[in-house]
Design brief:
alpha+beta, Arc Repressor Mutant, subunit A, 2 domains, 3-stranded antiparallel beta sheet, 8 helices, about 45% helix, transcription
Length: about 220
């Protein structure tokens, strides 16, 4: 396989194949594909789009991608729309690809969200129960609030999710509880020399004064 039979004038001669040139060509093709995958970031890129970006034949792209997967340069994922995408091996697919934490394929996991909401609410109820044992009303109010970070850490400690939940995931759950008139939110401004100024969200359970869904209760921010 490493020798070519060539015709030189009227004579047939044997010559070694130019393996280095062939290898260099393969390296260049791999670099083109790797660059296309790299540009896609954590949104990934479909093989068809790699073809458009590199002008390489599809069978060749498939073969090269397979080798790159074996060497852990890239990895393939299936998006929520059932589309096969490639991204760099060390990257995690974006929410646009996976459909977000609360999606399985294209289906919204209602039961999972309900369980998370129930656990968040129970945690806040427990905090409120402990706060009510304090004698000072101001201390009661302060102790009844929990930050979204504290709630997130607690939910992750329960191990009820297959993946680690992020702060935005938990805050989406808490926003739903606010909409259901079960929880209220307080925003606290923070500042530090290392992080600069910012804000942090705190939550606590409330007892709705009215059961009517058409009315909204606005906390005054003073009463415990």
């Amino acid at each position: 396989d490493k020798i070519d039979l060539l015709k030189k004038g009227k004579q047939l001669v044997y010559a070694y194949k130019n393996a280095s040139r062939k290898s260099q060509g393969a390296d260049n093709e791999e670099k083109l594909i790797l660059e296309a995958v790299k540009k896609s970031g954590n949104d990934g890129i479909a093989p068809k789009d790699i073809k458009y970006a590199t002008n390489l034949p599809q069978p060749q792209i498939t073969k090269i991608l397979k080798g790159m997967e074996a060497r852990r340069l890239v990895k393939s994922v299936v998006s929520s729309s059932k589309k096969k995408l490639f991204l760099l091996y060390g990257l995690e697919p974006s929410h646009a690809v996976t459909g977000g934490t609360f999606y399985s394929g294209q289906e919204f996991e209602t039961e999972f969200v309900d369980v998370l909401g129930e656990q968040c609410y129970r945690y806040l109820l427990q905090a409120k129960g402990l706060a009510e044992k304090l004698s000072d009303p101001v201390s009661q109010r302060h102790a009844s609030f929990k930050s979204s970070r504290e709630i997130c850490d607690y939910i992750n400690s329960l191990k009820i999710s297959k993946v680690e939940l992020k702060l935005p995931d938990i805050e989406k759950i808490l926003e739903a509880l606010i909409y259901d008139d079960k929880v209220e939110k307080s925003v606290s401004l923070t500042s530090s020399s290392s992080k600069g100024s910012g804000s942090e969200n705190f939550y606590r359970t409330i007892k709705p004064l009215l059961s009517s869904a058409g009315l909204m209760r606005m906390p005054c921010g003073v009463c415990p």
